[in-house]
Amino acid sequence: MQLTISDEKTKELLTEVLVQMIRDKREVFREIVLEAIEEVGLANAIVEGRRDDFVSEEKIMSALEG
C-alpha cells in the first residue's frame, strides 16, 4: 500500500507545522532565523571581499589585537 498526498495538502500541513512551531518553540525558531540572517550576511561579506583589495594577515591580526 502506497500513501500519496496532494501538493495542496502538503502545503497546508507544512504551514500548520510552521505556525505551531512558531507558537510553541518561539526561541528555537528565533535562533534558526538569526542563524540564517548571519549566514546571509557572511555570504554577502565574502562576495564583497572578493571585489575589493585583499588585506594582509598582519593588518588583520593587528586589528584583532587592538
What can you tell me about this protein's structure?
- This protein is mainly alpha-helical and 66 residues long.
- The chain has a domain at 30-66.
- 80% of the residues lie in helices and 0% in strands.
- It contains 3 helices and no strands.
- The protein has helices at 7-24, 26-51, 57-65.
- Helix 1 packs across helix 2 (26-51).
- The longest helix has 26 residues, at 26-51.
- It is elongated and about 65 Å long.
- It starts with 6 loop residues before the first helix and ends with a helix.
- The mean pLDDT is 87.
Write the layout of secondary structure elements.
Layout: H1 7-24, H2 26-51, H3 57-65
What is this structure, in a nutshell?
With 66 residues, the chain is mainly α. It has helices spanning 7-24, 26-51, 57-65.
